[in-house]
Amino acid sequence: MDFQQMVIRSIEEDIRQNDQRLELATFGMGCFWGPEARFGSMSGVVRTCVGFTGGTTPTPTYRKMGDHTETVQISFDPRVISYEAILREFWQNHYPNRDNYKGRQYISLVHYHTEQQRKTIENIQKEMEMQLREPIETEIAPVSEFTLAEERHQKYYLKRYPKALEQLAELYPNNALLKDSTFAARLNGFVKGFGTKGSVREDIAQWSIGVAEKERLTDLFLKLKW
């Protein structure tokens, strides 16, 4: 096993061991490319992906979405970042009222995965309404089937840098690994303008992987060609 394989195995093993502690959050807040980058830059967010929820059209696609909404789904570690903090990020970074949208593709939507999430949404909504000084019209609904969007939409901003992707191929030889990668989520946020080189390095330093793996990822990050 070469060193690159050791790095990816170490990272994925750490994620697998912590899966039972992770929670899901699902949001619609306009075009899903930007929200995936935004949430992917946040410490405590482990995975991000984009897809479609909320509608009745079978097997939606980007070109044939029907009555579904573009959504981002994240896996996060509540020991590092709270659902409350994620909700504030959601409401502070898009206009949540429906008169700003046509159809359902880009509506403001939050799916709750548990009863506790529903209660938290209600509490944070009241807080945000006081800040906005107007009612929030975000659609709030229990989680529905999440259909993964096509490959080209996952980590959209990172994929605009083919030279960097070539370098990352050593760690992530297929798109499934890239989609589920915490490192790729941070890079997707970084190239969109969320975070700095310093914040990415600080985040890697906190991951539960070996010192050698941290050094390898940090070195690769600093050498990526944008």
Automatic annotation (TrEMBL):
Catalytic activity from the UniProt record: L-methionyl-[protein] + [thioredoxin]-disulfide + H2O = L-methionyl-(S)-S-oxide-[protein] + [thioredoxin]-dithiol; [thioredoxin]-disulfide + L-methionine + H2O = L-methionine (S)-S-oxide + [thioredoxin]-dithiol
Record-annotated active site: C31
Keywords: Oxidoreductase
Top EC group: oxidoreductase
Gene Ontology terms for molecular function: L-methionine:thioredoxin-disulfide S-oxidoreductase activity; peptide-methionine (S)-S-oxide reductase activity
This enzyme's EC code(s): 1.8.4.11
Domain Peptide methionine sulphoxide reductase MsrA, chain residue ranges per copy: 25-160
Entry-linked Pfam families: PMSR (PF01625)
Similarity-based family: Belongs to the MsrA Met sulfoxide reductase family.
UniProt function note: Has an important function as a repair enzyme for proteins that have been inactivated by oxidation. Catalyzes the reversible oxidation-reduction of methionine sulfoxide in proteins to methionine.
Name of the protein this chain belongs to: Peptide methionine sulfoxide reductase MsrA
Source organism phylogeny: Bacteria, Bacillati, Bacillota, Bacilli, Bacillales
